[in-house]
TrEMBL record:
Family: Belongs to the Nudix hydrolase family. NudJ subfamily.
Official protein name in the record: Phosphatase NudJ
Subunit text: Monomer.
Keywords, ordered alphabetically: Hydrolase, Magnesium
Cofactor(s) listed in the protein's UniProt record: Mg(2+)
GO molecular function: nucleoside diphosphate phosphatase activity; ribonucleoside triphosphate phosphatase activity; thiamine diphosphate phosphatase activity
InterPro entries: NUDIX_hydrolase-like_dom_sf, NUDIX_hydrolase_dom, NudJ
Domain Nudix hydrolase: start-end pairs: 2-133
Amino acid sequence: MVWKPNTTVAAIVEQDGKFLLVEEDTADGVRFNQPAGHLERGESLLEAVIRETREESAYRFEPQALLGIYQWHHPQKDITYMRYAFIGAVSDHDPEQPLDSGIRRALWMSLEEIQACRALHRSPQVLTCIEHYLAGQRFPLNIITHLERGEP
């Protein structure tokens, strides 16, 4: 069996002192996460985070910086995740848009609210990303290179 980490993307969005999160049904019960999901075949990381944010929150996401790359091994599932977290802004909310399967709602939470529900985070990456964002960590988007098929 070939081992491969799961590549995921996440949107870190802060507005008026609150962060955009989603409440979702998981195999472990209801959990909180940033709008996030898996990179699909043929997508760039930026395309993936824009798509996932729209599907999970009904907002259009505009990436502005790379927050960081996070490696986390889920001990109960024996799965390693490589999360590319992007900082950005949202607009064009469509309240009529159905959200992805399993997503109950998108909501805005303060740091204190997020810290208070730590036991219900989808992964430790949720709070770690917010802490890094608040510490001012940022990398320019041009740090990521996406080569199309056929390019050397």
